[in-house]
Amino acid sequence: MLYEGKAKKVFATDQPELVRVYYKDDATAFNGQKRGQIEGKGAINNQMSNLLFQYLAEHGVPTHFVEQVSERETIVRKVDILPLEVVVRNVAAGSFSKRLGVLEGTVLPRPLVEFYYKNDELGDPLLTDDQALVLGLASQEDLAELRTRALEVNRLLQERFAACGLALIDFKIEFGRLPSGEIVLADEISPDTCRLWDKDTHQKLDKDRFRQDLGGVEDAYQEVWRRMKGGLSA
Ligand code: TMP
Ligand code: ASP
């Protein structure tokens, strides 16, 4: 094992440029202060993330995905994860609503891109572009590329989720750098990392059910995966 995170483990393979990711059922919130298990989450997040990474790749977004090897395991290209979490928001929720006093559910006039410093000790603070540059976390070119890619991912994901009757409220993505220097989409895209609401009822179908103790956590993950697998069925 090379690394164990809050939701995944990463293992070496016999090829130095590839690693194997194992998705756990462990769930944390508020920078690890709240801990629990979401039964079946690892299998859903792995398969859903792979489905979406393949969809994004087909639409011109390069990703780390190589091959799913089991319900919970995937081979991905080994990358150096950039120390920035990129959040895109379409509708006010979560920390945006709380910090800025905007009612949850308020539709934003355009998608908003935010960068956070990926640093658990500091609690992943929000970063301005200038702070990212001064800290040497990314170059101006990198930031511009991440912003463009994130907005493209947002457009594609919104379309894909809308086809399943889901509104994409916001999401967090991470990028990694290949040995060639190329930046690719990495980590995962799942109900852990996206806010997804039923488009008609606005029922929350994501990790906010765990974060906010809303109950029905497992059912929400299963419902999202059922709709995704079914393609157009809502
Ligand atoms: P936030 O509103 O708490 O800033 O979260 C924005 C989005 O990022 C939301 O879809 C949940 C996701 N997210 C993560 O994937 N990991 C995290 O550690 C946090 C705080 C948020
Ligand atoms: N990743 C967060 C944590 O550090 C949880 C969250 O998604 O809110 O526990």
From TrEMBL:
Gene Ontology molecular function terms on file: ATP binding; phosphoribosylaminoimidazolesuccinocarboxamide synthase activity
Pathway it works in: Purine metabolism; IMP biosynthesis via de novo pathway; 5-amino-1-(5-phospho-D-ribosyl)imidazole-4-carboxamide from 5-amino-1-(5-phospho-D-ribosyl)imidazole-4-carboxylate: step 1/2
Keywords: ATP-binding, Ligase, Nucleotide-binding, Purine biosynthesis
GO biological process: 'de novo' IMP biosynthetic process; cobalamin biosynthetic process
Annotated transmembrane regions: none
Keyword ATP-binding: yes
Enzyme Commission number: 6.3.2.6
Domain SAICAR synthetase/ADE2 N-terminal residues, every copy: 2-227
Coiled-coil positions: none
Reactions mediated catalytically: 5-amino-1-(5-phospho-D-ribosyl)imidazole-4-carboxylate + L-aspartate + ATP = (2S)-2-[5-amino-1-(5-phospho-beta-D-ribosyl)imidazole-4-carboxamido]succinate + ADP + phosphate + 2 H(+)
Matches recorded under InterPro entries: SAICAR_synt/ADE2_N, SAICAR_synt_PurC, SAICAR_synth, SAICAR_synthetase, SAICAR_synthetase_CS
Family note: Belongs to the SAICAR synthetase family.
Name of this protein: Phosphoribosylaminoimidazole-succinocarboxamide synthase
